[in-house]
Write a structure and sequence with these properties.
single chain; 508 residues; alpha+beta; FAD/NAD(P)-binding domain; 3 domains; seven-stranded mixed sheet; five-stranded parallel sheet; 16 helices; 37% helix; binds flavin-adenine dinucleotide
Length: 508
């Protein structure tokens, strides 16, 4: 098309693919450069023998049409052909004394259950349940990028969503650890501490349970790989191009305007807009040489904590586990012998048992995964000595299996596949800062600072993905791609278009 404006996108993870789809829907000529050999970034699956290892997806917010976010997944072609599973339990915790705690996904069931188990914590729990109920009632507007909000949009948001905004403000100041410390029941305390990283703000648990209750955070059957393949297909169907094995080493600027990229093979490509969907640190400090920063960016990169890197274990087991209740994230189990991973010692581990997804294992068999946080520096140093690195991976998998057999003794001779990923795997395959698996941790401090999708004094350049959306996850990553194309349309004086198929067009 003559005079068609062009966009280069760096990275074919969730956010890059999303930006690509919306760029194509809006008549831009887009090209994604991806350093790896496939799309997805951290949202990926890989084959080991007859098993299909799900590396990311546990729940997808917006899986049902009762929240506005759902529209985006339809536009991205992500879920139309997927069977979605909504579990009744988020997490089942077992302690050494054999007691059990279940985070039910139905709020009324959870409320009754917690009151029965821990009547001594009624006051705190009532407050917590009340907040979830408020989040169930409301839904954030996602149709329009907040950067384009005018006074009217802002006032409308405050007017219509006031109770939710108040609860969000209150709970974003409290960490999971601080809330757990107020609880008297040791079992309940342990359950909250095992829900997610304890430094995260309580809002993360509250909104997650609200979505779970609404049954709009389902698991798309097939896991990460099948999910991403659908979005990649949608992008290609819209006319987009992806160049694999194409690592960008430099963003070319001219007169403080981003005009192109240079790959590691020296080739240069030029476009009207450049969007980086790659790691934030590499984008700002390496590809752009640290030239476009301000106090806010410096503060973020010096003080924010990333989600830690992880040691990911996958086992293929010749056992159906059909008697076990399925859960969103798994079974949180005590380790008989604490598991040392790098400099982190784990007393407990959450094990996901995919007895609900037959696409991940041959019939009658099950994929089991577990990921545990660890420190990047340990693995970075160890990686210099390949023999020691490989030996440590084996040692950890063996120690993990030893612990697992204490809970499932009948599988001792049924483990037929084992695999792992270390922080170096995440670093090498996705370029994420310190091997992080999900961008910035949503701590109370981080929740106070809004991260811009532009850089100071640099024109025609945007950043998307989990390094500009604190808390990360697939919905914010995809939404940031959508929002940035709205911003570009705005700059170009175009009306933003999005549609589910070529015949159905939704205009904002
Ligand atoms: C174990 C695990 C469980 C998770 N569970 C969930 C869940 O249940 N629900 C949920 O919503 N989210 C979950 N997440 C988080 C979610 O997967 C991520 O937040 C999201 O996929 C991030 O997408 P992104 O596009 O921002 O970044 P990335 O996935 O990191 O994509 C960046 C892409 O850029 C490429 N790239 C980097 N540098 C360059 C370069 N120089 N040149 C070219 N290409 C480059 C990378 O190869 C990569 O493909 C989970 C993540 C993990 C690891």
């Amino acid at each position: 098309m003559a005079n068609q404006k062009s966009i280069i996108i760096i990275g074919a993870g969730m956010s890059g693919l999303s930006a690509g789809c919306y760029a194509q829907m809006n008549g831009f000529d887009s090209m994604i450069f991806e350093m790896g050999d496939h799309a997805g970034g951290v949202c990926t699956s890989w084959k080991r023998g007859d098993y299909n290892i799900n590396g990311s997806m546990h729940w997808l917010v917006g899986s049902a049409p009762n929240v506005k976010m759902h529209q985006m997944w339809l536009e991205l072609g992500a879920i139309q052909d997927k069977m979605l599973v909504n579990h009744d339990i988020f997490l089942t915790l077992k302690n050494v004394a054999g007691q059990e705690f279940k985070f039910y996904t139905n709020l009324f069931q959870l409320e009754k259950y917690i009151h029965e188990i821990a009547p001594e914590d009624k006051e705190e729990i009532d407050d917590f349940i009340k907040a979830i109920k408020v989040f169930i009632e409301y839904d954030l507007p996602t149709e329009k990028a907040q950067e384009l909000f005018g006074l009217f949009d802002g006032l409308k948001l405050i007017f219509t969503e006031f109770p939710m905004l108040m609860e969000a403000m209150k709970w974003s100041k409290i960490t999971i650890a601080e809330f757990a410390a107020k609880l008297k029941s040791p079992l309940l305390q342990k359950a909250f501490l095992s829900f997610w990283h304890p430094e995260m703000s309580m809002t993360t648990i509250i909104v997650t349970l609200a979505w779970m209750h609404k049954r709009t955070a389902g698991y798309p059957m097939g896991g990460s790989g099948a999910f991403i393949e659908s979005v990649e297909e949608r992008y290609k169907h819209l006319g987009g191009n992806i160049a694999y094995h194409s690592k960008v080493e430099k963003i070319i600027t001219y007169d403080d305007t981003a005009v192109g990229v240079q790959l590691t093979n020296g080739r240069q490509y030029f476009a009207d807009y450049i969007i980086s969907a790659a790691d934030g640190y590499n984008t700002i400090f390496k590809m752009l040489g640290g030239k476009y920063i301000d106090e806010n960016i410096t503060k973020i990169y010096q003080t924010f904590k990333p989600f830690p890197s992880i040691f990911f274990i996958a086992l293929g087991i010749d056992e159906s586990f059909e008697e076990l209740e399925s859960t969103v994230v798994g079974y949180n189990l005590p380790m008989k012998q604490p598991l040392k991973i790098g400099n982190t010692v784990h007393e407990r581990a959450t094990v996901q048992i995919y007895n609900f997804d037959p696409t991940l294992a041959p019939e009658g068999k099950t994929l089991m995964t577990c990921f545990l946080s660890t420190d990047y520096q340990f693995w970075h140093s160890l990686y210099q000595n390949k023999a020691l690195y490989e030996a440590e991976k084996d040692r950890i998998i063996n120690d993990f299996i030893h612990n697992l057999l204490a809970h499932f003794p009948h599988i001792s001779d049924k483990i037929e596949m084992q695999d792992c990923a270390t922080p170096m795997t995440y670093n090498n395959y996705t370029g994420n800062y310190q091997g992080s698996y999900e961008g910035w941790l949503p701590t109370p401090e981080a929740s106070k600072i809004h991260i811009k999708k532009t850089l100071p004094n640099l024109h025609h350049f945007f950043m998307i993905g989990h390094w500009v959306e604190t808390g990360g996850g697939l919905p914010p990553a995809a939404m940031s791609g959508r929002n940035v194309v709205q911003l570009i349309c705005h700059q170009e004086g175009r009306k933003f278009k999005s549609y589910i198929s070529s015949v159905e067009a939704v205009m904002i």
